[in-house]
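Hi support team,

I've been running sequence recovery on a batch of backbones for a student project. Most finish fine, but this one hangs at about 90% for roughly twenty minutes before it completes. I'm not sure whether the input is malformed or the queue is just slow. I've pasted the structure tokens below so you can try to reproduce it. Let me know if you need the job ID as well.

Thanks,
M.K.
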């Protein structure tokens, strides 16, 4: 499978290595607006985002390899590609239940676990060592940082960022575009557009 990677920062470097580890996957282009013009190195095209339409065809998939949730959303909306044109990249060491749903454009990093009945939206990041327990619902553009644990029946809204090693107890709901600090323990519902930190969490900012 031929793949175009959008973005070439640190997060993208990890995704590029993941793609290279997958059987029959080949990166043909890396697009980023840091490149003012098209160039080629080792059979890979480096060019600005505006080059996408000239490179994509029915046999090519795209992955947005950008860590910022809001930037991933803006780029996806700007590109206006079909959902099936996006590739989900899943590391071979990730453990995925046969009943879990992972939608297009999502990246699942090494040693992540996604258990029975979990649903992951589009363009999410399930980072290294994350545990997504049974029947979690994670909306589009969320980022679950390394070693975070989402226990059963957790609901995560669009664009939520959950910090590294955070723990969400069963049944909690986190509203869209909220941020949970690294190492926090969530034992109450968190409304939308909030920043919450601590063990247990307390809301320190609300937009």
């Amino acid at each position: 499978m031929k793949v175009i990677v959008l973005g070439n920062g640190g997060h993208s470097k990890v995704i590029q290595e993941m793609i290279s580890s997958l059987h029959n996957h080949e990166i043909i282009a890396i697009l980023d607006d840091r490149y003012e013009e098209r160039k080629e190195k080792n059979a890979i095209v480096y060019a600005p985002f505006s080059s996408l339409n000239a490179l994509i065809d029915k046999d090519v998939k795209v992955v947005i390899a950008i860590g910022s949730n809001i930037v991933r959303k803006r780029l996806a909306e700007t590109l206006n590609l079909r959902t099936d044109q996006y590739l989900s990249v899943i590391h071979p060491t990730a453990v995925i239940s046969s009943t879990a749903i992972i939608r297009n454009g999502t990246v699942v990093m090494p040693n992540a676990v996604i258990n029975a009945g979990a649903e992951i939206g589009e363009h999410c990041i399930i980072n290294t060592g994350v545990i997504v327990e049974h029947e979690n619902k994670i909306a589009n553009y969320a980022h679950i940082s390394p070693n975070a644990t989402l226990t059963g029946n957790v609901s995560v809204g669009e664009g939520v960022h959950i910090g590294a090693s955070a723990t969400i107890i069963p049944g909690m709901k986190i509203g869209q575009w909220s941020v949970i600090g690294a190492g926090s323990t969530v034992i109450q519902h968190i409304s939308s557009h909030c920043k919450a930190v601590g063990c247990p969490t307390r809301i320190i900012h609300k937009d």
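--
Follow-up from support: It reproduced on our side and the slowdown came from queue contention, not your input. Residues 162 and 191 are 14 Å apart (CA to CA). No action needed from you.
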